[in-house]
Amino acid sequence: MKISVVGTGYVGLVQGVCLAELGHQVTCIDIDERKIERLNEGISPIYEPGIEELITRNVAAGRLSFATPAAGWAPLLAEVVFIAVGTPMSENGAADLGYVRSAVASIAAEAPFPLTVVMKSTVPPGTGHVLQARFLGEAAHPVGYASNPEFLREGQAIRDFFEPDRIVIGGAAAEDLARVTAVYQPLVERCEAEGRECAIVSTDVASAETIKYASNAFLSTKISFINEMANVCDCVGADIDAVASGMGLDTRIGPQFLKAGIGYGGSCFPKDTRALDFISTLNGYEFDLLKAVIDVNNRQRLLPVIHLSKALPELHHSRIAVLGLAFKPHTDDVRESPALDIVPLLLEEGAEVTCYDPIAAPIDIDGAVRCDTVWEALEGASAAVVVTEWPEFIELDWARVREAMTGPGIIFDGRNALDPDAVATAGLSYMAVGRDGAHRR
Ligand code: UGA
Question: How far is the CA of 434 from the centre of ligand 1 (A)?
Answer without folding.
Answer: 20
